[in-house]
Structures are given as C-alpha cells and as structure tokens.
From TrEMBL:
Keywords: Cytoplasm, Magnesium, Metal-binding, Pantothenate biosynthesis, Transferase. Its cofactor is Mg(2+). HAMAP family: PanB. This is 3-methyl-2-oxobutanoate hydroxymethyltransferase. The gene is panB. Catalyzes the reversible reaction in which hydroxymethyl group from 5,10-methylenetetrahydrofolate is transferred onto alpha-ketoisovalerate to form ketopantoate.
C-alpha cells in the first residue's frame, strides 16, 4: 500500500468521490481507521478535549500535536496525514507559523491545518510558497471560542454568510488546497463548495461538501452520551470498531451521512 498524496486527493475530488476524514491521535486507531478505508487522518487539536481532558483546545501545544502526529503516521500506511496548528502557533506571524509548521511536517504531517479566513491569507501564502500544503478552517473555529462567545453555529444570516464565502475564496486564492467548514448552514456550505475548486471538508455543514470529517470519539460514542447535533453514533448496530469505521466511510462515500437531521438551517 502506498500513502495517498495531495495529488491523489485531487483525483478523488475531480472524480466526484467524497473524501472520508477522521481525527486520530494514536497508532492503534490509525491502523484501524486506515484498514477501514479512511482517506485522511487529522491530528486535531481536539486532542486537548478528547485526550487531555481540557474543556477547550487552547492549552494544546505544537509539541503535543507533533507527538500524536508521529504516532498516527506510524500506524497508518495509506491515509493522508494532516496536523492541526494549535492556538498561538501561527497567529503571530507568517515566520512563526512556518517554524511551527516545520515541526509538524518533520513529525510526519503531509499538510497543516490552521483556523481563520482572509486574515490568515498572507500566512497561508507564506507556508504554501515554501513547500507546506495548507488546509484552512472557517465557520466555528474552536480556538476563538471566547471571542465567539461559545460553540455556536456560524454563517447564519446574509452578512455572516457573505463574509464566510469571502473568507473561503481568500484562503483558496492564498493557496490553501483544502478547507474545513465547521458548523454552518448546509445551504451555505453547498454554496461555498460550488464556488471553490479546492476540497471542502464538512463537519456540521451538510452533505454537499466534497468530504466529511468526524471526531473519532464522537463517531464511536466515547464517552457515551449526548453529542452535537451533527454527530452520528456509528457504534449503533456495529459489531466492532472496525465495522463502525467501515460503515462511517461508506456513509460518507454514498452521501447518506450527514442526513438532514445532522444539519443546520440558514
Ligand atoms: O481539532 C479537530 O478535531 C478539528 C476538526 C473538528 C475539524 O479541527
Ligand atoms: Na482543530
């Protein structure tokens, strides 16, 4: 098995095949998800929540993400590896962002992800022009939880929707080759996806994105209990973790997840 590259993902996108992404933080789950056909593994700064037990992603460090990235890379043979740039590691300057992105690439990432829209365009351009592929992330950006006043749906209403579309176009123009759309109305995500020529990855953004990302612990209902509206528990009716992951991949590929019950209105 050969590891997927950015060019392979572009081919999936061109063929109209949905991209299946999971967050992942260790080698064993990386191997399990890889074996279930997950295309991309994201070492999300959600590790602050699900691994470290914090109530936000803000305390996560570059060293934390690098440690988990190295473990995930060792576990997966095929999946494309994306590492999140944590809070404080990229906002200050393009140079600081580059230095921290180098640490994540050296740990095994093939792409870094950073939160933000047009205000991050110069930083994205700085990284991409120096050989570091970038995934952007707009909508609900958890590193800005205190500025946003909580974990709320974004892009509701005409002016917020227009700003989000402008941000998505700006990061594409800066050279981002993928963009996560988190917790926005499904119709807005569909509009953004139609307007861009790069891969859109939705989470709480409806079925019309070019792919979907699921937080591992949410999709497997760990710990058991109520989750966000867009989460589906793939353990429900599954015979094993491998079966749950395979069903999640199939549901993304055939467009049955997310359903209308997982989406937000404009
Ligand atoms: O950290 C994370 O898990 C993420 C995904 C929700 C996109 O950024
Ligand atoms: Na994240």
């Amino acid at each position: 098995t050969r590891r997927l590259t950015q060019a392979d993902l572009a081919k999936l996108y061109a063929a109209g095949e949905k991209v299946a992404m999971f967050t992942c933080y260790d080698a064993s789950f990386a191997r399990l998800l890889d074996g279930a056909g997950v295309d991309c593994l994201l070492i999300g700064d959600s590790l602050g929540n699900v691994i470290q037990g914090h109530d936000t992603t803000l305390p996560v460090t570059v060293a934390d993400v690098a440690y988990h990235t190295a473990a995930v890379k060792r576990g997966a043979e095929r999946a494309f590896i994306i590492a999140d740039m944590p809070f404080g590691s990229f906002q200050e300057s393009p140079e600081a962002a580059f230095r921290n992105a180098v640490t994540l690439m050296a740990a095994g990432a093939q792409m870094v992800k950073l939160e933000g829209g047009a205000e991050m365009a110069p930083t994205i351009q700085f990284l991409v022009s120096r050989g570091i592929p970038v995934c952007a992330h707009v909508g609900l950006t958890p590193q800005s939880v205190h500025a946003l006043g909580g974990y709320k749906v974004q892009g509701k209403g005409d002016s917020a929707a227009r700003k989000l579309l402008d941000d998505a176009v700006a990061v594409q123009h800066a050279g981002a080759t993928m963009i996560v759309l988190e917790a926005i109305p499904a119709v807005l995500a569909a509009e953004v996806t139609a307007a861009l020529h790069i891969i859109t990855i939705g989470i709480g953004a409806g079925k019309d994105c070019s792919g979907q990302v699921m937080v591992l612990h949410d999709a497997f209902d760990i710990p058991p209990g109520k989750k966000a509206k867009f989460v589906r528990n793939f353990m429900d009716g599954a015979s094993s973790l491998h079966d749950a992951a395979s069903r999640a991949v199939a549901a993304v590929k055939d467009g049955s997840y997310p359903g209308p019950e997982h989406t937000y209105a404009a």
